[in-house]
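Long-time lurker, finally posting.

We've been working with histidine kinase (Agathobaculum butyriciproducens) and I want a structural starting point before designing mutants. I don't trust myself to interpret raw outputs, so I'm hoping someone here can both generate the C-alpha cells and explain anything notable. Sequence follows.
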Amino acid sequence: MKQQDGKPRLFSFTLRDFLIFAAIFICALVLCTLLRRSDISDGFASPVFVLAVLLTSRFTNGYLFGTLAAFLSVIGINYIFTFPYWEFNFTMTGYPLTFFVMLCVSLVTCTMTTKIKQQEQFRMESEREKMRANLLRSVSHDIRTPLTSIIGSTSAILETPDLSLEQQHQLLEDVRDDAQWLVRVVENLLSITRMGEDTRITKQPEAAEEVLGEVARKFRKHYPDVKISVAVPDELLIVPMDAILIEQVMTNLLENAVRHGKNTTHIALSVHQDGENAVFAVQDNGGGIPPKLLPVLFSGTLRHSDTPTGDGKRNMGLGLSVCNAIVRAHGGTMHAQNRDGGAEFIFCLPMIEKEPELQ
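Top reply, 14 upvotes:
Generated this for you. Predicted structure of histidine kinase:
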C-alpha cells in the first residue's frame, strides 16, 4: 500500500505480507519444535528465529511485520524453547541483548529492503519517462511528415486543374495511405493511454485462437494481396490478457512485416504453449531486419533514416516500442530475429496470473 504522495507506508498491512509473515514464522516454530524433540540444547532457537526475522523483513513491505516478528521471536525463544518451558523467565542472562539483536536485524533489513524497492521504483519511473520522450519524438515526426504529404497532395489536386484522372487518382491514394498511417499512430497513442500511468492493465482469460483469428480477419481486409496463415494448437489455449492491446501488438507486427519486409508476400501467425507461457510468433518471407537494428529495435530510438524503407514516412520504431511496452505490461517478453530469409517477431505471455511486482 502507498500514501497519496506515492511513497510506501512504513507500517502498512496487506494480506500478502501477512501470509508471508505467517508462513515464515510457522516454519520457524515447526523447525524449533523438531530440534527440541531431538534433544538439542536450548541454543538452537536463537539463530532459527534470527533467520525468520531476517526473511520476514526482507520479503514484506514496511516495518510492521519485521518488527512484529522480532517481538514474537523473543517471546517464542523465552516462553517455548528455553527451560523452564512454557514459562516466562525474564532473569535469563542475555535476554535483553537477544531482544535488541532481533530488533536491530528487523530494522536494518526493513530499511535496506525499503530503500532497494524505492530505488527500483525510481529506476522504472526513469525508464518510463525515457520511453515517453522517445515516443513523443517519434510521434512528432510520424504526424508531421504524412500531414505535410496530405497537404501537398490535396493542394496539387485543387490548384492544378489540368491534372489527368490517373494523376489525381495516384495523389488521392497517397492521401489515403498517409491518413491510414495517422490513424495507426493515434491507435498506438490510445494503447499507451489504455495501459495507464503505472502500466498496469486489466487482464481477462481469452482464447488465443479467437484473438489470432480476429487479427487475421482484419488484416486480410486491408491487405488482400498478402497471404496470411494461422497455426494454433489442437487444444484450446486460454491466456490472461487485455485482448484489445494484444490485437494491437499483432496488428502492428503484421503491418510492419508488409511495410518494412521488402516485398513480403506471406506472413505466418502462430501461437503455442511453452511451459507456463503462451508463445506468439509473426514470421514473414521478406528481406529480414538489418543486424545493426536488432539491439535497438524495441527502444523507440530508431531514426527514420535507419528504417529499411528509408522513405522517411514509415517509422517502425514507434509501433515496436509500443508493442514491447504492452507485452511487458502483461508480464511477458518480446524479441526479434532473422529466420529463413525473413523476420520473425516473438512475444511470450504468462498463462498463470501473477501478482504485480511492487514498483
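Before you design anything, note these points.
The beta strands are 204-207, 227-231, 238-241, 266-274, 277-284, 333-339, 342-350.
The first strand starts at residue 204 and ends at 207.
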